[in-house]
Amino acid sequence: MGTSSFLTRARGLLRIRNRLVRECLAELLSTFVLIIITLSSAAQKITSFETKGNLLTSYLAGALAVMVGIYIAGGISGAHMNPAFSLAMCMTKQFPWWKFPIFVFVQTLASFLSAGVVYILYYDAIWHYSNGTLTVSGPRETASIFATYPADYVSIANGFLDQVIGTGVLMVAVMGIMDARNKPAPKGLEPVIVALLVLSIECSMGSNCGCPLNPARDIGPRLFTYLAGWGPEVFRWVEGRG
């Protein structure tokens, strides 16, 4: 009886009643899980010389991470996990504009924190693979674990268009899946269908720039690599990275 009473009091003290705070925490957790799985799959692939992962496993991990993130926070914050999605929701009047910068900050912060955890998790592997030098280009570069970089042949204009088209396809398709006036996805299976959508886009539009589809997924980890030792080169359009 005493233990039950203590747990009841503890739950009452820990319960967060402010809706915005709850939404932000949900968004933080879902984005954190999304990015940590996505980056870890890249770290495993790269640092193992693709003996314990390949491009397809990275794509699959990222898509499944989207599914998990939606299941974590879909009923609380909507599990945006992506500034582009938050913007699309604002433009269609399904999300208040005043929350937009708050969600973008939370999503970017979660991505930054995820990058830090992945760096700790794969610290030994990263330094072993890179021969003790953190680089953005070259045969032993490790910056692409955390952020996406263009292929050697991609121009700035083509790279920009690549991201606009890929992210646009994602937003249009997600809006269609969510539209109750359309032929909606079976209730409870929306995260699975969105994950399959992400996987299809990655498999068809990933060769130019890595298909991040998410500004927070790229900016947060890129900021981390800048601070962690890769330097300002992470913000440059790098050519000849192979």
UniProtKB/TrEMBL annotation:
Enumerate the transmembrane spans. 20-39, 59-79, 100-122, 160-178
Q: How does it assemble?
A: Homotetramer; each monomer provides an independent glycerol/water pore. Could also exist in other oligomeric states.
UniProt protein name: Aquaporin-3
Q: InterPro entries annotated for this entry? A: Aquaporin-like, Aquaporin_3, MIP, MIP/Aquaporin, MIP_CS
Species source reads: Rhipidura dahli
Outline what the protein does.
Answer: Aquaglyceroporins form homotetrameric transmembrane channels, with each monomer independently mediating glycerol and water transport across the plasma membrane along their osmotic gradient. Could also be permeable to urea. Also participates in cell permeability to H2O2 and H2O2-mediated signaling. In skin, transports glycerol to the epidermis and stratum corneum, where it maintains hydration, elasticity, and supports lipid biosynthesis for barrier repair. In kidney, contributes to the reabsorption of water, helping the body maintain proper fluid balance.
User: Under the GO molecular function aspect, what terms does this record hold?
Assistant: glycerol channel activity; urea transmembrane transporter activity; water channel activity
- Matching Pfam families: MIP
Please give an example of a GO cellular component term from this record: basolateral plasma membrane
PANTHER family, per database record = AQUAPORIN OR AQUAGLYCEROPORIN RELATED, AQUAPORIN-10
Q: How does it sit in the membrane?
A: Multi-pass membrane protein
Coiled-coil zones: none
The UniProt similarity line reads: Belongs to the MIP/aquaporin (TC 1.A.8) family.
